[in-house]
Amino acid sequence: MRNKKNLKVGKLVRVINRYTSEVMPEVYIITYYMSGGVWQISPITNMSITRHFHTKQLVEVTCE
User: Fold this and answer.
1) CA nearest 58: which of 3, 5, 1?
2) What is the CA radius of gyration of the chain?
3) Closest residue by Cα to residue 59 from 9, 15, 8, 3
4) pLDDT (tens digit per residue) in 16-60
């Protein structure tokens, strides 16, 4: 069975380092879904910066 992450535009996510499997501390917001499981994300602090990551590299932020 596939691991569904249930990601959508507008959700808060963090990036997983693909080399060390460590979750990075900066919080991003998903701004756009691109084809092939690639998401465009922007840091909460500066929405003018965009980065592209695959679904496997993102983890949803849970509120504490």
Assistant:
1) 5
2) 11
3) 15
4) 998 999 999 999 999 999 988 899 999 999 999 999 999 999 999
pTM: 0.83
Stated as kind and residue range, the H or E segment containing 51 is strand 51-54
Classify residue 58 by burial, with Cβ atoms within 10 Å: 0-12, 13-18, 19+.
buried
Please list, residue by residue across 27-46, b when 16 or more beta carbons sit within 10 angstroms of its beta carbon and e when fewer do.
ebebeeeeeeeebebbeeee
